[in-house]
UniProtKB/TrEMBL annotation:
This is Ferredoxin. Residues 57-77 are annotated as: Disordered. Residues 61-70 have a biased composition (Low complexity). Pfam families: Fer4_15.
């Protein structure tokens, strides 16, 4: 029987390094961040940013899947996308984004 570590190959699917936070009370859904981080973010039907994983859960909710929950308050950002996330934070016209080191 193979161990779990021998079955996995390639890079880890769990992003680490940085967390991107969205202040939902300030964001007005202009979409700058989605354009700068299409690898991580998608827009909902009103233009607000969602993590790709939240978009998948939202689609499951539309299909009737239970327990889909609310969108993430913080979105994991891999190190190689940190420069793009910084640019999204710096260019957000509503200052609704923040980037912090993951603990």
């Amino acid at each position: 029987m193979q161990s779990a570590s021998s079955r996995t190959s390639g890079p880890s699917l769990v992003p680490t390094g940085w967390m991107l936070g969205v202040d939902w009370s300030v964001c007005d859904g202009r979409g700058w961040c989605v354009e700068l981080l299409p690898e991580l973010l998608v827009q909902d039907r009103w233009g607000y940013p969602l993590a790709q994983s939240d978009a998948d859960r939202a689609a499951a909710a539309r299909d009737g899947a239970p327990g889909t929950g609310r969108p993430a308050r913080e979105i994991p950002v891999p190190d190689h996308l940190a420069p793009h996330a910084r640019r999204a934070v710096e260019t957000c016209p509503r200052l609704a984004l923040r980037l912090r080191r993951a603990s």
